[in-house]
Structure formats: structure tokens, C-alpha cells
Fold this sequence. Notes:
alpha/beta; 22 helices; 504 residues; 4-stranded mixed β-sheet; 18 strands
Amino acid sequence: MSLTQLLTRAEEGISAPTVTVEVHISNGLPAFSIVGLPEAAVRESRDRVRSAIINSGFEFPIRKIIVNLAPADLPKEGGRYDLAIALGILASSKQLNTRLLQDYEFFGELALSGELRPVKGLVPALINSQKQGRKVILPGSNHSEASFIQQLECQLADNLAQVCQFFNGGEELPPVEIEHQTTSMSYELDLAEVLGQTQAKRALEIAAAGNHHLLMMGPPGTGKSMLAQRLNTILPEMGQQEALQTLSIHSISNNGTINLENWKKRPFRAPHHTVSGVALVGGGSQPKPGEISLANNGVLFLDELTEFDRKTIEVLREPLETGQIHISRAARQATFPAMFQLVAAMNPCPGGCESILSCSCSHEQLSRYKNKLSAPLLDRIDIQIELPRLNKNELLNQKIHQQESSQAVRDRVSRARKIQISRQGCLNGQMNNQQIEDICMLDETSRQLLTQAIDKLKLSARSYHRLLKLARSIADLAGKEKISVKCISEAINYRRSPLLQRNS
């Protein structure tokens, strides 16, 4: 009788809990069973492991083999457990030296030949392994995921025989080379390409500085989409922790991509208006991140906002407030980060007229149109502006080289963000009520102006707090320690949306 224990990790959101692989070989009728809530791909590892062991030149024990994946109540899926199971069988059958096994965590799917195949969704597991100070062995084809995690002791292998040779005192496994690259902040798009729309560019800069949500209304062709697509070009690159968190989400996503060349650039997601609620916020029987999580630490752009299904966009309410989404299904629960910056664009009315207040659409058409967006959802959007059409002089007389570049705006945004992080440890758009009270103090004149705005615009408590945070961002962009009357006045102007007034 022999018992061996090895460590690996499951895929559960971005938490990657530890899984202990227990292998017990005993006398009895030959059998090979896997317990511990394995799903189909895990149960099928019995055949992969048996063939891989034999084709790697080892003997598969013709005895009773029980593999337990603990904890037993945690669902296990995928082929990531193959390597740990195979090594456990070899160790329990005395074909492998067990002296160093306890220092490592193992990941890898086995081919029938014994070759190690890559495993998806490894980034969260590797981050947690590094935090707990454990060494890792994984397939050589997973090198890129591991190369971005600092202080991770990771070694690569191409096949099962190579791993066994290492533990039996043979040749050392090659280590992962940690990437120390700097991200190039060059973009194909530039804010200078947008002619005119000075006010909208100003609103975009404020939104970027404080991580505020933005809604742009205007007739077709006024530059709403152009401005939204250039928001991430004026955002500073992500810090190390932000980048790793975003990398983790894309790693476990079925349809997310990992941009290893520019991994610190903030993501930009623009789902089509036919997107389902599950695709937008995440879900499925085995919960996967949706668009709002793939946009974490970046921008979520919803073009033609009113064309989205109302039930679909209403699910954004909670993540807009909390910065995360909790998905509960019958068998699984998962929590994903969703600290995205929402940018939306829409026409003022169904007919695309110049203004929602001066259009030719019928009252019934306008009513149906505006009712696609609920007041609680609009209340969560800090900045709401109207974009006018450019006249012919603005179109003909303005040149791209005369417009301010994304680089120039990004420098100001970066300075404002550094002020906020240094002062309260987060961006203004993420402040809680206590931080607002401590940081967004007003003089008597500013307080009177704000009081008048509350009465006139019928501001809710949420709107009041968001207005204060917006004014604080305006002050930070100007390098002011205190919020002035001018800052309050400008912030109020971004809450004068006709759409808000119609919903009040």
C-alpha cells in the first residue's frame, strides 16, 4: 500500500483554489477511479494518463488505484490535473523519487504519447502559487503566461519523461525567463483626429482623469464613436497589479485574448447591441467572465445605447456601483472584477434629430425611446453631454495637426490620477461616502450653488455624491487643492442632460 500527495490548482473565477491530488495504490482487483467531483474531461484523464505512462517508458501498475481530488465539493474540470495524477501514480508505485514533490505545484494536460499540452486559464493559478511561495512545473507552451509574473519559481517541461528524469536526479528543467519589457504607448488612433467638439473632448478628459462614466448624445456623424474609441488612448498604462488582474480575466475567458506585446495597455471592449445579458456580464453553467469583466481596468463602449435590450443594460446597475459582478448558478458561483469605465453613445431621438428637445418625432416615439433607459441607470452615469453638428467652417478650416494629441491629454490625465492615488489611494470615481466627506469639502459659496442645483435638477443622493466626485476631478486637473465654485459649476453642467430632465 502506498499513498502520495501532490498539489495543483482548480479554475474557479480568478481565485484558483489549491487542489490536493491524493493517489492511493493497493492490492485488489485492477481498477482506476478518480473521485472528488471530477467532470467528464477529468474522468477521461484515466486513459490519457495510462497511455502517457506506458509510452514514456514506465510501467503502469496493474493494481487498485484511487485518485482523490480534494476538496471533494469543488468541481474539477479540464485536463490540467493529468500531470499531477501521472506523477502521483509513478511515485506511489516507487518509480519516482518523492523527495522534492511537495515543493511543487503541477499543471499540464497529457497527450497519449506523454507530451505535455498547454492548459488555459493558468494566470490566476500562477499568481496564487507565487503568493504562497511554491514552485511550479508546467508545459513549455505555457511559457508566455508565466513570463509576466515576478518572483515566480517556474520550470518548463515538454513531456512526462522529462519531468520524471528531473525528480529522479537527472537534468534540470529550464526555468521561465521573466519578461521585463516596457509597454509601447503608441496607438493607431489619436484624439487629434477628431475635429472640433471642444466641450466633448473636455468631458472625455475629465472622465479619464477621475474614472467617471460618460454618456454622449448627438445626431449621427458628430463624432461620438470617434471620441469613445480614443478614450483609452488618453488613459495611462496599467500598473503591475492592474495588468496581472486583467491578464487573469482574459486568461480564463473562452473568447478573451491575451495581448502579450502590450499587456499593460488598458482594454477596450465594444460589444454589439445584440449582445445577450450573459455575454455582457458573464455567466453560463460554468461561470465565465463577460464583456464588463474583460473591460476591467479599461473601457466598455456601448454604441447606440438605446438599441440594446433594456433587460440587458439594466444588469449593469450593480457592477457600475460595486466594481464587481457575482454570478450564481445551481452548481457554481463565481465573482469577477468589473472595474470598467462605461462610455455610451446614442442619438437624441429615434429619428436622429439635432436635439431631443427640438425634434419632429411624436410624443409616443420619444416616450418609448427614452423609456429604454431607466432613471436609476442614468443616475449612475456621471457625465452626460450633447454633441452638436459641426458647421461647414469648422469642418473646412480645422486641421488634424491643429488639434491636441492624445499624448498631451494623457500627460494631464496621468498627473491628475497621481494626485488622487497619493491623496486617497484610489481614483475619484471610486471614492466611498466617507472619503467624499473628508476630501470634497466646499466653501459657503460653492455649497449654496450646489444646494440650488439639488433643488432645480432634483438630484438624488447618488447624483449629489457623483457630482462632488466629478468636481473633485475637475479641480485635480487644474492642480487645485480645494474645489472652487467654477469646478462645481462645470460639474453641474454635465448633469443638465435633457434626458435626465425627462426622466425626473
